[in-house]
Specification:
single chain, mainly alpha, two-stranded antiparallel ribbon, 2 strands
Length: 392
């Protein structure tokens, strides 16, 4: 795995806890005691990256395998990782829906924020509907994968103990504990140029430029943190623009994650699940890739370092930035000696689950989460990345 692919891998995923942990006190204690030891060894407990990067041998010894029921062991691990990713996706999309989507019986919670909703609608008049529908899809992914695992007698994933992060204080948000943080994001927008490039592919170690360079550094809210964020107009528009690009960042991650993990699935029915959910992530991504191009160029008056450039004018513009170039450009795939091909990118499978966790952690999505959360995510990702096709 190249450094480039590692850094560029996308995805969504968050913390996790096996459902049966709450019913299995010995296992739960084992996990907690290990977390303590590993954190001491790591020497730094506040950064997720530190927790994610320490060695794994002792961890494997102290963490007995979760139950797979009648499923192939690797397949169950892949599905559990995907369930975790979907739980995290649901959590973040629900926060968007409460403030900027449509709150109804399909996607309950929150009461909407008219100013934020109007700012998002600048990108497309139907944004509230799209946010609602994306949220509903994630909920269905999460519930289905866990239900399928349970139907095969396998352990499922429940992250409820990590719902500890604060909600937005802005009008319209529910006041409940969250898994994800949408208020301190560093949004990677390299997907914008990655899918427009006709010569580069992160699977070959290539890196690509940001569409919105200032969004990738520092910490930026994608939802109003409180009602002070609703004014002035350009400030809430900057927050809506941030959301508009973050939608694409999240969904391009899912678009890569499913094909990455599918390559190591063993059972045909599990493969069918992965191959049937994955393309819906691509449908989401395609929509958001189109809408992000409608984000109005502006500078955030409350954070002048945050600039949304005109992507159709120099020094932007052209093949890599032009906003109507929303279809994937054919690029190199598998071998430079083969013809260029229009494909999802990246799709290399090695280390894909851990790459997803690292990508999300680096985005700030988990700022404020406990070391135990990162430890659990790391455990799930390691198990998924250990899965091998045809190995039982
Ligand atoms: Fe999903
Ligand atoms: Fe998704």
């Amino acid at each position: 795995m190249t450094t480039g692919a590692w850094n560029e891998i996308n995805i969504l995923v968050g913390g996790i806890v096996m459902k049966d942990l709450s019913q299995d006190s010995k296992k739960s204690i084992d996990r907690r005691s290990f977390v303590k030891k590993s954190l001491t060894a790591a020497g730094a407990v506040t950064m997720g990256a530190a927790v994610l990067s320490h060695g794994s041998a002792a961890f494997a010894e102290e963490h007995p395998e979760e139950g797979s029921g009648s499923l192939d062991r690797g397949d169950a691990a892949i599905l559990r990782f995907l369930a975790a990713a979907e739980i995290l996706e649901t959590d973040l999309w629900q926060q968007y829906n409460e403030l900027g989507g449509i709150q109804d019986s399909e996607v309950p919670g929150g009461s909407g924020n008219s100013i934020y909703t109007a700012a998002i609608a600048v990108l497309d008049a139907d944004m509230a509907q799209y946010i609602h529908d994306n949220t509903e899809d994630e909920m269905s992914h999460e519930v289905f994968i866990n239900a399928y695992l349970a139907s095969k007698g396998a352990d499922t994933v429940n992250l409820d103990q990590f719902r500890t992060l604060p909600s937005s204080q802005a009008t319209g948000a529910q006041q409940i504990g969250r898994l994800t943080n949408l208020m301190q994001l560093s949004v990677d927008t390299t997907w914008w140029t990655r899918y427009r490039s006709f010569s580069k592919n992160p699977d070959f170690g290539d890196t690509l430029p940001q569409a919105v360079p200032s969004l990738a550094v520092g910490q930026h809210p994608a939802i109003p943190r409180n009602d002070d964020d609703l004014t002035p107009h350009k400030h809430i528009q900057a927050i809506a623009n941030t959301a508009g690009f973050h939608f694409g960042t999240i969904e391009q991650g899912g678009t890569s994650l499913y094909p990455q993990l599918a390559q190591r699935v063993t059972n045909a029915e599990v493969l069918r699940i992965v191959l049937s959910i994955g393309p819906t992530e691509a449908m989401h991504f395609q929509t958001w890739a189109d809408k992000a191009g409608n984000a109005p160029p502006l500078t955030d008056p409350k954070d002048p370092s945050l600039i949304f450039p005109n992507l159709n004018a120099p020094p932007f513009g052209g093949q890599l930035f032009q906003t109507n170039l929303i279809m994937p450009e054919p690029t190199i795939f598998l071998s430079r000696s083969l013809p260029k091909c229009s494909i999802v990118r990246p799709t290399a499978t090695r280390g894909a689950a851990m790459g997803a966790v690292k990508f999300l952690a680096a985005s700030g999505l988990f700022i404020g989460q406990s070391p135990a959360f990162f430890e659990m995510m790391r455990d799930l990702a390691e198990d998924a990345d250990s899965a091998q096709r045809g190995a039982h």
